[in-house]
Amino acid sequence: MEGKKLRHQRKVVGLAILLINDQQDDINPSTFTCDFCVESKHLQESFKVKGCSHFYCDQCIVKFVVSKLQDNVTSIMCPVPGCKGMLDPEHCRPILPNQIFDRWGSALCEAVVMGSETDKYLYCPFKDCSALLVYENGTKRAVCASVCPHCKRELCPSCKVPWHTEFDCAQFQKLNDDDMVKVLARKLKWPRCPSCKYYIQKSSGCNRMICRCGRGFLYNEPSYSFYDRIRIFLEETPIFLNEIHISFLKETRIFWNKIRISFLKEIQEARISFLKETRIFLKEAQEARISFLKDTRIFLKETQEARISFLKETRIFLKETSISLKEILIFLKERRILFLKEIHIFLKEICIFLKGE
To answer: Could you tell me which residue ranges the RING-type domain spans (predicted)?
Structure first.
């Protein structure tokens, strides 16, 4: 039922898109509406599917090819259900990026190899290689180690794993992981940790082992006695204290590093804030300086005008003062003459008066 509904909805949407295309073709014949993105595109951006009459925009075709390659589909048909149109790499090459074109070609090659009946294939079991390897008939079934021509490491073609040195293929395929580890540990005499039961392999050094769980024991005698426990405890105590000391130093460094980072961050923020405030202060000081210079120029201009006016008035005053001084001198000169005449008359009268007596 859901499939029928989806088909009906697709038919309705297709008819609506065709009607919109017809309307748009009547309005602007140089554009079309892509059935994928339902956007108006120029005809130069269209791409026709090989073997049918359907066409879409370049970008939608590229995205459609990428989605099919992600689903491991190499034979890509027309997006319209039931249509016999087909997309192939050579036909799509003008619009495909080089990376997608190469990926499509590699997928086609792998599909041919995987579908071959005469050759056998496998992938290199090492994750950092994973190259596709092809073997002739019989080579894959041979019970011997083969070498990957890419990473030059040994592998087992029959089991499709890295080469198992301690077992043949029949034993390896019968064993699971736990059984294989047990057989290998028994053969190499690996002891187990008394606490966590993990197998331990000694690479070098003395027989005193410390497991990753923290348990200490002797490599040759994992089930040691009470005195061995005391001895190992006494030996491990300085190590434990040293570990505590190292851990304390690490945590202290981390703590001080956090404080240092926080302090530097605060200093940086304070510096940024100080620079901002300094810029604002300098801007205001510059504006005040400009205003002061303007006011000073106006004051000096007014002072110069007042000085010129004062000098003019002073010259006029001095001129008027010199005229008045001349008049005063003339007046004093006349008064002096009159005064001397009056004195002379007065002295004459005195003399006459003295002679009369």
So the answer is: 30-240, 34-80
